[in-house]
Amino acid sequence: MLNVNTDLLVRLKAKDASAWYELWEVFGPSIERIVGSIANRYFSQETVKDVSQETLARVYKEIARFDQKRGVKFSTWLYAIAKNVVLTELSRRNTQKRNSGEKPASLDGMEGFDPESDDTPVEFEISVFRAKVLRALKTVEGTVGLMEFESYRMKICDNLHGKDISEQLGISEASVSRYLKKVRDEARREIARAVAMYSWTPEEEGQTGGAGLDKVDDEAFDAALGEVYAQADAERKGTRGVMTKTAQAVTGKV
Prior knowledge:
The chain is mainly α and 254 residues long. The chain is 72% helix and 0% strand. The protein has helices at residues 6-13, 17-39, 45-62, 74-100, 122-143, 146-157, 162-169, 173-197, 202-205, 207-210, 218-236, 240-253. Helix 2 packs across helix 12 (240-253). The longest helix has 27 residues, at 74-100. The chain is elongated, with a radius of gyration of 21 Å.
């Protein structure tokens, strides 16, 4: 396993603010997604945001205890903390209701959530993986030319062929072909690097193959990447401002 994630973990445990912002920038939407899936039935959107922030604050406090040598997936560790924060808040509110004579809320029947289970929902694990891939593509976007990346985005997201891309961008098909190869090659390398950087177990790194991103065939790779990219981008929409405020609040006050 390519071990390039050590520096990030060291920086996190040293309370490096930039490392924490990086962590939240990458995984913030996934954390908010899982907190929301557990808490939306019981809390207002404002409280869900507070619980998301408290989850990151708890991660901030507990990161020193995270030992990658135990083989625990980072997604599993994140989910356990998020679940604990939600249950603690619900328990606090239920205590208040009992004291006031109201009926406390129950977790019975909540679809997809078992408070007694230690299993991390598959969708959350996939969401964390998608976040790594999106991080890689954002890095590629910043290193290649604007026209180059747009050509590839149109290929994997809009399912356009070289001729159509050429006509829409006003460039030659030969240029499109060169751009696609360049960005695809960069994407392959950067995805491998990002997945390694933000993974602490062989199982996490194996998700690249499970998502079809180990395909040698260019068309198969493009199709798999387009699907992951679309889902990851959809999850991230509407969270950028929240992520920034959360990262600043936590690293500034804890």
